[in-house]
Write a structure and sequence with these properties.
This protein is an alpha/beta fold and 154 residues long. It contains four helices and six strands.
């Protein structure tokens, strides 16, 4: 059996096999090489406690058109307004449900999450809660996900 450093560098599987067959003395130069890429560790989900409130499409609770979010999308069940440090399109698990951020709060409440509710009564009943929030799917700042529905006015 021929043991080759070139074959060992091609895949992580080959590195493991050759190390087992040829001994660690042959593999020492590969371990020191910087061009052998290791698989990145999976990121842990970001989970934290946050103040979570609810809002509705009442004109007194919104600015401008009460049915259009800050991102230009129409309101829908599963919508959350999130702090500006999270890009639009970021998905969060709040309680037992996943919400997508397509709206913003007023600057003075930029530390909160605000879940859209179909009625003012539902929003009032939800109240203010401190809940665990998990980032399920983070969006890159410049990434623009496809629209499900056309933006109003376009």
């Amino acid at each position: 059996m021929i043991c080759s450093r070139r074959v060992a560098a091609q895949t992580a599987l080959a590195v493991g096999l050759i190390a087992g067959l040829c001994g660690s003395a042959l593999m020492a130069p590969l371990a020191a090489r910087q061009d052998v890429a290791l698989a990145p560790e999976p990121e842990r989900p970001a989970t934290f406690r946050a103040v979570v409130t609810a809002y509705s499409s009442s004109p007194d609770e919104t600015w401008g058109d009460p049915l259009v979010t800050a991102s230009g999308r129409k309101v829908f069940d599963g919508l959350v307004a999130c702090p500006r440090r999270f890009p639009f399109g970021t998905k969060f698990r709040i309680g037992d449900r996943v919400y997508t951020c397509w709206d913003r709060l007023h600057h003075r409440y930029d530390h909160r999450f605000d879940i859209w509710k179909p009625s003012k009564e539902d929003a009032i009943q939800f109240g203010l809660q401190r809940l665990h929030v998990e980032v399920v799917e983070a969006r890159a700042e410049g990434q623009r996900p496809a629209l499900r529905e056309p933006v109003s006015g376009v």
